TrEMBL record:
Belongs to the GDA1/CD39 NTPase family. The lineage of its organism: Eukaryota, Viridiplantae, Chlorophyta, core chlorophytes, Chlorophyceae. The keyword Oxidoreductase does not apply. The chain crosses the membrane at residues 12-35. This is Apyrase. It comes from Volvox africanus. Keywords: Hydrolase, Membrane, Transmembrane, Transmembrane helix. PROSITE patterns: GDA1_CD39_NTPASE.
Amino acid sequence: MRRPENVGDMFWRYRGVLLVASVPVALILAIILLVPRSSPLHVERAHTLKELRHTGPAAITKYAIVFDAGSTGSRIHVFKFEQTDGDLKLISDTFEQLKPGLSSYADDPAKAAASLQPLLDTALKTVPAALQASTPISLKATAGLRLLPGDKADHILSAVEDLLRKQPFKLAPGGVSIMDGKDEGAFAWLTLNYLLGRLSGSVSNTVAAIDMGGGSIQEAFALEDTDAKEAPKDYVTQLHGGGKVFNVYVHSYLGYGLMAGRAKLIEASLSDNNAAGASECFASGASGTYSYAGKDYPYTPRGDKGDAGKCTYLGELALKANLTCGAEQLQCSFNGAWRGNGLSKGRQYYVSSYFWDRAFETGIIKVQEAIMWPTSPKEFRAKAAEVCGLTTDAVVQAYPKVQGDSAKFLCLDLTYCDVMLTKGFKLDPGISVTLVKQVLYNGQHIEAAWPLGAAVNDLSA
């Protein structure tokens, strides 16, 4: 007769089943004991600094569309941003271009507007349909349209505006217009300060900008509100960015870019007894005729070598630095323009375009891969003195990056850079300025061009 099973016997018989069943029970107990009671489904871990910077409200994706309608072609920028707590972070720039420009259709406004359709198709494909109604779109035309006779430009702009209003996007205030040098300088200032992260602080935290092109040069810097109220209205532009409104002094000096400046310095050397344009801005071997804006300017050296000091004098004559601006002379810059007295004092200056080119070619910028470089006006002065003391052949040998006829003009160009900064904009020769070609932003090298500033302004207005 079999004896009755006790507990031990039953445990032994079903030991395999019990072992299998105990595994999930053990796991459940472990979770209950190890995970904090306050958040039973969340595992805590350490945050890195980068992650902490992005902790907060979810980013909102935004787009802005800017047409750059130039004289030779039309271009579109479709900028993508992420906005967090009012701060715009540039994510990408979808860029396309086509030729010819709007001015090529001077007698057919409808065809001019229709020429933009391929670029609009790019915008329609890039911006998600759900965001198109809130995406600002604008077109800024430059010199090409401005030069058209009569009201041809107005008819083209009207046709373009009609086309843009039919799109699913939001036409920005003043969205279709011809942009002058002042507007370009203002938007370029906004781009530079946006990329440098200078819009979130005080006005004094922003930087000033001087950009020297071939035909014109622009200066821009932010004004304190009290100074803006006292400034002549034509010199102040309101811009939006960083969650605030900036009053920006901006002035464009048409006819004072580097290529135009060459003509003015040659012209300053002319006199009844100097019809050949003999000038201390040129060295032996540098003679010929300089053509600019449909006019020829003969030039020849006065002696075997140039003279930076005497060339500087010619530069001051060309700038008309003593011309009155309708206020006390301390408030005037050059060629009769108002600039205020010390309104940009304490600002860091960033200078670009031909300032960069001449500094790069002559070794003021010492690192080939640099996108920014600290310098001062006196470095341009010292380099001018060095170059002006060389013959043209010696310049070619000493500065192999200088191409073509630029070797003949290098003494003049460098002197003009120095004179522009110190006599034109009244900067101290020893002040630190930053040469800038591009800005490192979010791991990318980005040019501080005006379309990005226009996009930031459209989104922030």
